Amino acid sequence: MNGIENYIEFIIYAIVMNLTPGADTIYIITKSVAQGKKAGIYSVLGIGTGALVHIALAAFGLSVILMKSILLFTIIKWAGAAYLIYLGIKMFIDKSDLFDNEDSSFGKINLLKIYRQGFFTNLLNPKVAIFFISLLPQFIATEYVNNATPFLILGGTFLLTGTIWCLFLAYSASYMTKKLRNNSNIGKIMQKISGFVFVSLGVQLLLKDE
Q1: Which residues contact 138 (CB under 8 A, 6 or more apart)?
Q2: What does the pLDDT look like over 41-92, one tens digit per residue?
Q3: CA distance 184 to 97
Q4: pTM for the full model?
Q5: What is the arithmetic mean of pLDDT over 142-151?
Q6: How far is CA 205 from its chain centroid?
């Protein structure tokens, strides 16, 4: 099928990988808990858009440049880590209740901000680009590696399974914490915990072996 080998095996692998927690998962859960279902959905859309960029880069060979350029990889890696740490510190020092942001007038500007944050959280993680360029060719016939079509199909499959799982996370997290939103003490504690987790993810990205 368009140069793709072991497609069912790839789908299984994609599902397993999507179930593995990471920065994207933490971001979606945090936003869903803090600001409800709509915020969670917009975070999923932002992360999905970032993944689309990585898929396109892998399909058209641009990720190979990132894979071979230590300097470029390092720059993007530090930018991504700095962004996560920035989000974490901002949440940690914020003295407000994590649930304060949810109100009846939750509007377009805030939703766009959540979308952008999700987008950059995914886009500025060079590990994602390396992941796609390393994984996808394993399921493509040798004679098709210079063809963008199988990369796009496999990447789209991975994105679809990931989006379904992420939407499930968003709905579940927002539903399970609905009754906690009136407790300001829990909101403040979760604000600090969420900030700490984001900082930890940023530091982990910096310290991980390349």
Answers
A1: none
A2: 999 999 999 999 999 988 887 666 656 677 766 776 787 678 778 877 877 7
A3: 6
A4: 0.70
A5: 79
A6: 13
Specify whether the CB–CB gap between 87 and 180 falls below 8 A: no
Q: For residue range 172-203, what is the model confidence (pLDDT) as tens digits?
A: 888 776 655 555 566 566 667 767 776 776 77
